[in-house]
Design goal:
Strand content: 15-25%
Number of domains: 1
Number of helices: 2
Radius of gyration: 22 Å
Order of helices and strands: HEEEEH
Shape: elongated
Strand order of the largest sheet: 1-2
Helix content: 40-55%
Oligomer: single chain
């Protein structure tokens, strides 16, 4: 039945958005994680990539995580000569994580998750109504 396929597609969307939220949470948790010693690098922001995947058993295109990679954006340099990982000039490399960008990504992932949940709920309600009609 096509409603089961719709539910499978939405479930795969919920799964990848859940993974996306975990990556965002890790980025936010490490937004101020600097290197421990001079010359080391601080935390580097992670980014997630999705791709379509054919579910041959059901015959539908679903979505899955293609990879979780690091953001190649440059680190911010902050002057703090008292910091243990400051270089000879007194600058510390800060993670390339922007809390504002992470918050926007989190909101988008949350909305996508909720949209997929609503689609599953609608399909479930339609299946329930169909069964009720068939019983009478």
């Amino acid at each position: 039945m096509d409603l089961y396929k719709a539910m499978a597609v939405s479930a795969s969307g919920m799964k990848v958005q859940g993974t996306r939220l975990k990556v965002i949470a890790e980025n936010l948790a490490n937004a101020n994680t600097t290197a421990e010693t001079p010359g080391d690098l601080p935390y580097r922001r992670k980014v997630i990539t999705f791709q379509n995947a054919l579910d041959r058993q059901m015959g539908v295109e679903t979505v899955r995580v293609a990879k979780i990679d690091v953001d190649k954006k440059d680190f911010e340099r902050r002057y703090d000569p008292s910091h243990p990982s400051a270089d000879a000039d007194g600058y510390v490399l800060m993670p390339n994580v922007s809390s504002i960008i992470e918050a926007m990504d989190m909101r988008e992932a949350q909305r996508s998750y909720e949209a997929n949940l609503s689609a599953i709920d609608s399909a479930r309600q339609m299946l329930t109504r169909t069964i009720d009609i068939l019983r009478t």
